[in-house]
Amino acid sequence: MPYITADARARLDEGGTPETAGELNYAITRLVDDYLMQKGGVRYAHLNEVVGALECAKLELYRRVAAPYEDRKLAEAGDVYRSPE
To answer: Residue 71 falls within a domain, yes or no?
Structure first.
């Protein structure tokens, strides 16, 4: 858990946009915590739902954003791998 400043916490808690990786982590953590509270607290099923949603969001970000970016950079700079496919 990132320990961001009290001012940053207040700004994010009021709906501000994260400006650093630590603030983004805090915002995601608060969203997850709010979800768990709304569901009635920590239960295996609730944790499983959260972990699954986070994992799917991560995979979708990689598939839709990171992989195409890496493909563009590969085309620009050339491949690093020398081993056969």
So the answer is: yes
Instruction: Flag whether pLDDT at 31 surpasses 70.
Output: yes
Tokens (6 digits) for 45: 């099923």
**Is the domain of 1 the same as that of 37?**
yes
Would the pTM of this model clear 0.70, i.e. be above it? yes
State the Cα–Cα distance between residues 76 and 54, nearest whole angstrom: 31
Contact criterion met (CB below 8 Å) for 4 and 26: yes
In a domain, 6, yes or no: yes
Query: Does 54 lie in the same domain as 72?
Result: yes
Residue 36 within a domain: yes
* DSSP conformational letter for 43: -
Average pLDDT of the segment spanning 30-58: 97
Please, which residues have CB within 8 angstroms of residue 3's CB and are 6 or more apart in sequence? 22
